[in-house]
Amino acid sequence: MSRKNIVLIGFMGSGKSMVAKRLAKILKRDMVSLDGLVEAKEGRSVKQIFEESGEAYFRNREKEAVREAAGKEFLVIDCGGGVVLDPQNIVKLKANGILIYLSATPETIRERVKNKKGRPLLNVKDPQKRIDELLKERTPLYAQADYTVVTDKKTVKQVGEEIIHLLTVGASLP
Ligand code: S3P
């Protein structure tokens, strides 16, 4: 397996954070969460940043976090669901990383984010409608990944194993 970063992208609730932690543990790599980097620099949560400074401000901070993480190697990078909105983020992450899209149906996502309050974009009257709209807009962007792993009805362990398999098989290709 190469020293390139393993970069997990996908919608909120697709399991990126948990899978990233698992992969980092198994592969003995450091794990970096882009949201975590932004929160540490700002000293406030993503939710607070959205509320107090707006989405555009957050996207700029997120872009800086991408630059920082993509400049390193041998990491597992857990990206926020909206990282793909900026094409430059994709270019940077791909330059030194293998992008893996964790996909999930709208129903799976709704179920997984149901009782979580930290997601400002889903803090609306009709979260399901919002999920559908955002997914429609973003699915073509997520498709720029090197690999897609379907996560519906799978455990974190299963998804992690699938990714490791993909990366191992991929590494042995000419
Ligand atoms: C966002 C996803 C969140 C976080 C922010 C915006 C998005 O991260 O970056 O709330 O635009 O999809 P997770 O995907 O880890 O929930």
Q: Which fold name fills CATH's third level, the topology?
A: Rossmann fold
Number of distinct helices: 8
What is the chains' assembly state? single chain
**What string gives the helices and strands in order?**
EHEHHHEHEHHEH
| Uncertain regions spanning at least 5 consecutive residues | none
Annotated CATH homologous superfamily: P-loop containing nucleotide triphosphate hydrolases
CATH classification, class level: Alpha Beta
Quote the beta fraction.
5-15%
Arithmetic mean of pLDDT = 94
In short:
By secondary structure, the protein is α/β, with parallel strands linked by helices. Helices cover 55% and strands 14% of the residues.
Task: Outline the structure in words.
Helix 4 (55-70) packs parallel to helix 5. The mean pLDDT is 94. It contains eight helices and five strands. It is globular and about 45 Å long. Strands 2-3-1-4-5 form a five-stranded parallel beta sheet, with helices on both faces. By secondary structure, it is an alpha/beta fold. The protein starts with a strand and ends with a helix. The chain has one domain: 3-Layer(aba) Sandwich (Rossmann fold), CATH 3.40.50.300. The structure holds shikimate-3-phosphate. Shikimate-3-phosphate binds next to helix 1. Shikimate-3-phosphate binds at residues 12, 16-17, 35, 46, 80-82, 119-121.
Features:
binds shikimate-3-phosphate, 5 strands, 174 residues, 8 helices, 5-stranded parallel beta sheet, 55% helix, alpha/beta, Rossmann fold
